[in-house]
């Protein structure tokens, strides 16, 4: 069996090598020739999987180690009887931690704000549960859910009036509720004065041209973009305007990617009726230096900011993207290659649950907040 795998999928050899020949390739550059004799294809969101890629190939299984499937032509795959699956929820916690890290870096205490969440599926739902567990007031927009499923559902216009608005919707262009350009100029102008807007879902859910126009006339907005319309060839003018920008890596925690690999591996074994030879618990490496001393001499909010920054320096993500943009000089091949290079060479980021905050009374409000974020308090 031949298995073609995106080069950015971690520990693929540990999971799949017992079942066939592994070929690693850059996801955005995969071609029909690469899969002409493959039995299985494992990708991430940068690889369009469609007739142009797979027609005439023997591929019988496609796994995407991501939550979204907008890069898969599901209708064509169904017509060809090619099995496919995604990894729902694998990186949800990673994205939630990205939101925390962004707000902490911007010195915006979410605990006393109203947070609007657009798209309450795997990721948005995880963010909603995490915030409400901390007593944070939330408003949610998701036309695919009912009030029984999420008691904080309301109209989009109400969500846009929140202090913080975070987008976590997949990209859809058909059906009764398409998400492409869900936030166009009309909606962006409704954002509350001094509001914070984050997009960690799909770039084209926000009309990026409209966003630039609005930001050119509204200096009060703080915008965080991890995803971009037309990526990897992102709008450099928009990058200059946002307070934090990153190359589609919110869900790129090492733990989240490993979960995605493991979930696809399970589906792969079921498809080909194979006995699994590897478990996630057997291959997840421990964090060698996982002790984080509790900050002293500062208030709880500043201590929380320092702990988060110690384990995840989100400012470094922003700096690396701006450095690539500066070196590229203008939109084009150099920028696209630099954007993808940042994703390929993204540093190992471990999730909060791997770390222990030491020297803190477990019964304090700070300890309770840290525990709610996933840290262990000793």
From TrEMBL:
<dbReference type="Pfam" id="PF11890">
    <property type="entry name" value="DUF3410"/>
</dbReference>
<feature type="active site" description="Proton donor">
    <location>
        <position position="248"/>
    </location>
</feature>
<comment type="pathway">
    <text>Cofactor biosynthesis; pyridoxine 5'-phosphate biosynthesis; pyridoxine 5'-phosphate from D-erythrose 4-phosphate: step 2/5.</text>
</comment>
<feature type="binding site">
    <location>
        <position position="45"/>
    </location>
    <ligand>
        <name>substrate</name>
    </ligand>
</feature>
<dbReference type="InterPro" id="IPR024531">
    <property type="entry name" value="Erythronate-4-P_DHase_dimer"/>
</dbReference>
<feature type="binding site">
    <location>
        <position position="252"/>
    </location>
    <ligand>
        <name>substrate</name>
    </ligand>
</feature>
<feature type="active site">
    <location>
        <position position="202"/>
    </location>
</feature>
<comment type="subunit">
    <text>Homodimer.</text>
</comment>
<feature type="active site">
    <location>
        <position position="231"/>
    </location>
</feature>
<dbReference type="GO" id="GO:0033711">
    <property type="term" value="F:4-phosphoerythronate dehydrogenase activity"/>
</dbReference>
<feature type="binding site">
    <location>
        <position position="66"/>
    </location>
    <ligand>
        <name>substrate</name>
    </ligand>
</feature>
<dbReference type="InterPro" id="IPR006140">
    <property type="entry name" value="D-isomer_DH_NAD-bd"/>
</dbReference>
<keyword id="KW-0664">Pyridoxine biosynthesis</keyword>
<dbReference type="Pfam" id="PF00389">
    <property type="entry name" value="2-Hacid_dh"/>
</dbReference>
<dbReference type="Pfam" id="PF02826">
    <property type="entry name" value="2-Hacid_dh_C"/>
</dbReference>
<feature type="domain" description="Erythronate-4-phosphate dehydrogenase dimerisation">
    <location>
        <begin position="290"/>
        <end position="374"/>
    </location>
</feature>
<comment type="function">
    <text>Catalyzes the oxidation of erythronate-4-phosphate to 3-hydroxy-2-oxo-4-phosphonooxybutanoate.</text>
</comment>
<keyword id="KW-0963">Cytoplasm</keyword>
<dbReference type="InterPro" id="IPR029753">
    <property type="entry name" value="D-isomer_DH_CS"/>
</dbReference>
<feature type="binding site">
    <location>
        <position position="169"/>
    </location>
    <ligand>
        <name>NAD(+)</name>
    </ligand>
</feature>
<protein>
    <recommendedName>
        <fullName>Erythronate-4-phosphate dehydrogenase</fullName>
        <ecNumber>1.1.1.290</ecNumber>
    </recommendedName>
</protein>
<dbReference type="InterPro" id="IPR006139">
    <property type="entry name" value="D-isomer_2_OHA_DH_cat_dom"/>
</dbReference>
<feature type="domain" description="D-isomer specific 2-hydroxyacid dehydrogenase NAD-binding">
    <location>
        <begin position="108"/>
        <end position="250"/>
    </location>
</feature>
<keyword id="KW-0520">NAD</keyword>
<dbReference type="InterPro" id="IPR038251">
    <property type="entry name" value="PdxB_dimer_sf"/>
</dbReference>
<comment type="similarity">
    <text>Belongs to the D-isomer specific 2-hydroxyacid dehydrogenase family. PdxB subfamily.</text>
</comment>
<dbReference type="InterPro" id="IPR020921">
    <property type="entry name" value="Erythronate-4-P_DHase"/>
</dbReference>
<keyword id="KW-0560">Oxidoreductase</keyword>
<feature type="binding site">
    <location>
        <position position="226"/>
    </location>
    <ligand>
        <name>NAD(+)</name>
    </ligand>
</feature>
<feature type="binding site">
    <location>
        <position position="251"/>
    </location>
    <ligand>
        <name>NAD(+)</name>
    </ligand>
</feature>
<feature type="binding site">
    <location>
        <position position="142"/>
    </location>
    <ligand>
        <name>NAD(+)</name>
    </ligand>
</feature>
<dbReference type="InterPro" id="IPR036291">
    <property type="entry name" value="NAD(P)-bd_dom_sf"/>
</dbReference>
<feature type="domain" description="D-isomer specific 2-hydroxyacid dehydrogenase catalytic">
    <location>
        <begin position="29"/>
        <end position="270"/>
    </location>
</feature>
């Amino acid at each position: 069996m031949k298995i073609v795998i995106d080069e950015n999928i971690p520990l693929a050899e540990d999971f799949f090598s017992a079942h066939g020949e592994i070929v690693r390739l850059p996801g955005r550059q995969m071609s029909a020739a690469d899969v002409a004799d493959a039995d299985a294809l494992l990708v991430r969101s940068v690889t369009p999987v469609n007739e142009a890629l797979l027609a005439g190939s023997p591929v019988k299984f496609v796994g995407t180690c991501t939550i979204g499937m907008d890069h898969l032509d599901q209708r064509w795959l169904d017509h060809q009887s090619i099995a496919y699956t995604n990894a729902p929820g694998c990186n949800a916690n990673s994205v939630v931690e990205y939101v925390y890290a962004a707000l902490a870096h911007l010195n915006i205490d979410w605990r006393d704000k109203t947070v609007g969440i657009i798209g309450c599926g795997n990721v948005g739902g995880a963010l909603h549960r995490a915030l409400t567990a901390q007593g944070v007031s939330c408003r949610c927009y998701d036309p695919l859910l009912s009030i029984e499923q999420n008691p904080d559902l309301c109209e989009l216009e109400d969500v846009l009036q929140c202090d913080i608005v975070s987008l976590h919707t997949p990209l859809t262009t058909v059906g009764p509720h398409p998400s492409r350009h869900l936030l166009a100029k009309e909606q962006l102008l409704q954002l509350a004065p001094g509001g914070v807007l984050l997009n960690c879902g799909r770039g084209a859910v926000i009309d990026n041209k409209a966003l630039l126009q609005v930001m050119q006339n509204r200096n009060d907005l703080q915008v965080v973009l991890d995803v971009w319309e037309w990526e990897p060839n992102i709008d450099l003018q928009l990058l200059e305007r946002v307070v934090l920008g990153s190359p589609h890596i919110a869900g790129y925690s090492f733990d989240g990617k490993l979960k995605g690999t493991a979930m696809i591996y399970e589906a792969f074994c079921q498809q080909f009726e194979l006995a699994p030879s590897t478990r996630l618990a057997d291959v997840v490496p421990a964090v060698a230096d996982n002790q984080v001393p509790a900050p002293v001499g500062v208030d709880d909010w500043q201590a929380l900011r320092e702990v988060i920054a110690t384990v995840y320096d989100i400012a470094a993500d922003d700096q690396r993207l701006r450095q690539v943009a500066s070196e590229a000089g203008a939109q084009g091949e150099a920028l696209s290659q630099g954007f993808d290079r940042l994703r390929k060479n993204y540093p190992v980021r471990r999730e909060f649950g791997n770390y222990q905050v030491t020297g803190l009374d477990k019964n304090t409000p700070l300890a309770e907040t840290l525990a709610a974020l996933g840290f262990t308090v000793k």
